[in-house]
Structures are given as structure tokens and as C-alpha cells.
Amino acid sequence: MSSVKVEAPETSYDGYRESYHPPQDIDCHRHKNTSLDKMDDKESSAKRINGLGSEVMEYGIQVVKGKDEGSRGVSTSAASATPVPSASATAATQLSDATSANSTDSNIVSRRKQEPAGTTPAQARGNNKRNLPSVSSAGGVARENGGKRSRRPPPRFGETAGLDRREESILRQAIENSKIETHLCDTVEIGEVPVFRPSLAEFADPIQFIESVKQAGDHFGIVKIIPPPGWSPPPQDEMHRSCKTPVKTRLQSLKYFKEGTGVADGKDYTFAEYENMAVQFSEKWQKERYQGQGKDAPTHEDLERDYWRIIEAAEEVVDVEYGNDLDTLTYGSGFPRATDLMMPRSEGSTEDRFAIETIGKDREGRGRLLGTPEYYERCGWNMNNLPLWPGSVLRYIRAPLKGVNVPWLYLGMQFATFCWHNEDNFMFSINYLHRGAAKQWYSIPGSKADVMEKVMKGFLREVFANNPDLLHHMTNQFHPVLFHRAGVPVFKARQEPGEFIVTFPKSFHAGFNYGFNVAEAVNFSPPLWLPLGREAMERYRRFARESVVSHDRLVLTLAHNLCPEWSIPSLQALLHDLTLIVKEEEFWRSQLTRQGLRVDIVPPSKLLPNNLKEMDDASLDYDEKRVCLSCKHVCFLSAVACECSESKVVCLREVPLLCKCRMDQRYLMAWHSISDLWDMVRRVEEYLKARLGEMGKRDGQKEEEEGGGSTTSDGEESGETL
């Protein structure tokens, strides 16, 4: 780890109340190509906000009806807004340029004046000649002298008769793609991701170690971590085999992955049945493809070529089944569980908050050696412990969120695939391979995610025009060479049993399995992830996609539970994000109040208060009932409702899309006052200043003791570290 020099913030946090302006990338009050009536009928919105009315009455909210209840006006801001053209309409316009120019001739010639009854064919031809439009010869329609038509050029390839614009677009795209795909499977050198081998001391705290390799992770997208010698978690095979719940698999048709399809429900298996099926598939593949070539078994390179040939050629039908996203609370984790760790602590108690330096030792002070069952139950690299480890922003989520703070288990077979994707909310993820065959990974760093998306959208223009959020479906697989040749940096790694792969925020990753294996994965995030979490939140609001966890709730919960394990840069990141949230909230409340929004109908005391100590099941259930009708954002701080409905709410950005009523019929529901929010900001600022002062005193004392030197012991560093 390298030491990081920490300085006091350059800016003062006293001037928080300067004028707030929404960021340029926030499309405020946008109108989709959907009528308000259709939006009101969306089943997904109704499911999320259904029941808010009953909750409102339960918590003592009195909805006041206006005197002119029957009248329904139209909001000025809503009526004057300009609709945004859909992505499919824009794509169709761009793709139809070539065909529209060549169709001008036939369209104009066909516009002939209807002839009166009794007109002979000869007279009709004369009339048509006289009534033809006079167009310059450059237009290629008619000449001035006699109205003779100019000779039409022969059709170009791709302008096939009988094809509509969409079919021509698909044909043109297929031709372009075929040029790119030519020799795509040729050998191209793709760089390997870095491999880290931490010492036992460095291995003690996973959050600190992963933050120390953040620079490499940001550059490569993923890193591989090999544990210290002696690492060998006890296998949980017997528990898995005794599980009575059938393993539900996903059927993957590899030849359709480039089209964004090819995934369906597979068969149900027991653990033993799935392993037998996967082993038989690999043996059959080896016997039919390689035994006649004088090879005992295919190498990893052979299977990698086979895999991409199937994907790219899309000629051979190869179907596999993947036991992915298996809930470890149902099927069991590959790590032993400790029941007494990470439980919610009572006020003033530190019983469950064990110190980081005790990792590797038991509570009586005796050495807990690496390799003992108790060590694996309590260490931070256990997938069950990492999301809630001291310093993780997910530590205060007590509700089980599958795949986020509750690990997924994965049963893989040869060619079972995980397509290109990045993690929910742009979080970190960690994958551990328990046993079996290796797993192949490919990665694109998060800094190049936007470029990667452009390349993929250019390759599937028609598909993305109809499904703009296709990348969220995780059903697209493309050869990494495609991105490499487009100038996008792409890397690869081969994960063997007993090794970790860590994916970094916003990075895209994909891969496949070389045979039967058992893996486990979970999300986590250090505090420096917060800016990426905000970026993910804004992206989800643009796509009207629900977030796994409310970013606003997460930030305010962290501000309420200030963590001593956090570094100074982490506290600065928290203060910055919290300040942005409060500024935006203050801005929109002020703007909407001036437009006539009522703020005196539902005082904060009448609402169920937000629980900032932890995020339990009750808190997350209530969040689901206050999701914005338009952008699917959780209205954690405030929401706007109307007298016309007891269930529909919107966030402050989307007020014009709530309904067709006047602004004075709408009212604010605020769970926090602006003054309370600024008090929270000042509390974080004071805590940060105190930490800076303490660090300065420690540095001064250390310099006096060492005579101004800065020596450190092996494997340790002075000062705050990242």
C-alpha cells in the first residue's frame, strides 16, 4: 500500500446556500412519448405505489379535497413542454436517408390529377403530361421540354424491391457487421489483468486492501487476488448435496447471444444431477472434437476458440444450462457462516463491533491460525461478511438484498455464459471460485464504459432502437476483439479455484466457464464509491429503472452513522454527496412553492419518520410505496401528491407528469425539513474537521518520537491510506 498525503479541504463548507442549478445531464420535467392517461395505467407503477394511500391514512395524513373538485385544469409547465422524440424514431430517420432520396421520383410521378368521367386514355396521357410538376433536371423527375422523364439510375445493392425501411436497415446493418466480423476470431493479443498476492497482514482487512489497488482496478476494470499460502476454506459440498430445493437453471442458446436473445428457463436439477450433466457434456465434447486429433484433452485455448466460434459464426446449435443467481439463504453458501457477527448493535454497545486488528486472533487473545474453521467464519473475505465489514457503505443494510449483501451461488458448466454487464448501482463485486473448472473473464474499465456502449449500439442499431436499455438485460455477448479493434481497451483473466476476482465500479465484464464449477459472488462498496453511485442513480432515472437501493437513503444513513474506520478522503466524498442532495432538495422545493405547490397540508410530524440507524425490511418496504410514477426514483426526502389520487406520487423533478390538475391542487409530503438537512451537513463537516485535527496531532507526535524521520515497518505505512 502507498501512503496518501491528506490535506484539509480547499473550500470552506460555510457557504452552502449559494444558488443551486440542476446539473446539465439531468433532463428535468422531460415528457416521454406516452400520454398521461397511458402512464396512469402502468401496472409497474401501480404495484410500487399501491397502498401508499392506506399508509397515508394509517399514519394520520388527512387528504384535503378542494372546493372545485370536479374541475381539472392543466399545469402551465406541463402543457408548454416539448415532447422528446423517441429513440426508435430518431434511428429510423437516420437509417432512411438513403431510401428517401431514391423514392422521390415515384412519389411525385404518382401524384396525378384525377381525370373527369369520359376522358379517353389518349386525353388522359395528354393531361398527365401537362399537369406533371416542373422540376429542375437536378431532381431527376421531369424536363421542361416536353415533360419527358429522365433516366432513373439502376438500384444500388441493398435497395431491394419489396423491402420496407426497417428491413432495409436490418440488411444494411448485417452487411456492415459482416465486414467487421471477418476474421474476428483470429488471434489478437489481449492484455492480462494484474494479479495481487497480499501478505497475511494485508489480507486482514479486505476493504483497505481493495482500496489500495483501486488505481489498477480503475485502469483494468477487474483484478485477480490470490490469497496467502495456507488459505483453504472448508468445503460445503455435503450441505449443498443435501439441499432439497431443486436448482433452477437458465437455458442458454449460444448462437443467439449476439442478437440479445437466447435465454430461457432450463430444467430443474439437484446439485448432484447438475454436476453429472455438466461432466457428461464436457466428456462428450472432448470425445467428439478432440480425441481423433491425438489430444488427451482440449486446452483452455482450444475451448476459448471453440466458444467464440460458436458465438460469432452462429451456425452450430449449442445449448447449455447455467445455475446462476442461486440464493445462498436457500441453497447454502460455500463459506461457513458465523451467526454472531454483524448483527445490529444496541445503543452504546460495541459487542458485535470487533476490531480489525483482532482478525487472525480469537477474543481471548490466543492466535486464531489461518486454516481453522473459526477463522473462515469471521474473516472479511468470507462472502457473507464482506458487504457488512467495517468501512463498507452497505454495512447498515440489515434487510437481506439478494446478490447485494446476500451472496449468489453459481453452478457452471462448459460454455455457461455471463454476458457483458456492469453491476447494479455501479457497485464493486467480488467473485470466489470454490471448486471445479476455471472461469474465463473479460473486462472493459469503467472509464471507457460510454465508448463501449456506443460500439455495441453501433453494432445493433435496430435492436437498441427498440430496446434502449438492452444492456441492463445482460443478454448480449460480443467477442472482445470487436471492442479492441474499435479502440476500446479490453483485458482478460483466467480464474482458478481458490482465487478472487474483484470488479470495479462501472466496469463492464463478461465471460464463460470451462467446465463444471461452483462459484459465489456478492456486492460491496467502500465510501469512495459514492460519486459512482450518484452517477448510476441519474442513469436509472433517465431510463425510468428502479434502483436496488435508494442512494439518498444510503447517504443519509451513512451521515447518521459516521464510521471511525473511514479515511479522510472517504469522509470528504460523503460530505460532498450529502451537500449535493440537500442543495437540490432546497432548490426544487423553492421553485415549486413559487409555482403554487401547497406545503401546509402534510407536515413532517404526520409522516412515518425515516429510520436512519439502519435499513431494515420495514424501511425498504415503505420505500417501495413512494416510488416516483415517472422516473422510478425513491422519494426518500419528499414527494408530491395530488387531491385526484391517494396513491400516485412523483419526485420533485417530475411534478408536471403527475396528473392534469392545477398546481394548487397538488401538495408536498416532506419527511425532512430543509433546516434538519443542513444540520446534518454541518454535523458531518464538524466530524471531518475533528478527524483532521486528530490526524495532525498524531503526525506531530510521531515526528517528535522519530526525530523527524518517517520509517515504517514492513507491510505497514504511516498516515491515512487509500
Automatic annotation (TrEMBL):
Positions with biased composition (Low complexity): 74-93
For bias type Polar residues, the affected ranges are 94-109, 120-137
Instruction: List the molecular function annotations (GO) for this entry.
Output: histone H3 demethylase activity; metal ion binding; methyltransferase activity
- Matches recorded under Pfam families: JmjC, JmjN, KDM5_C-hel, zf-C5HC2
Q: Where is the JmjN domain?
A: 193-234
What's a single GO CC term here? nucleus
GO annotation (BP), single: regulation of gene expression
InterPro entries per record: JmjC_dom (IPR003347), JmjN (IPR003349), KDM5_C-hel (IPR048615), Znf_C5HC2 (IPR004198)
Keywords for the protein's UniProt record, in alphabetical order? Iron, Metal-binding, Methyltransferase, Transferase
Record-annotated membrane-spanning stretches? none
| Coiled-coil stretches | none
**Region Disordered: start and end of each range?**
1-51, 63-165, 695-722
Q: Which PROSITE patterns match?
A: JMJC, JMJN
Record-annotated JmjC domain positions: 375-541
Q: Where is the composition biased (Basic and acidic residues)?
A: 15-46
Return the protein name.
Lysine-specific demethylase
The species this protein was found in: Nannochloropsis gaditana
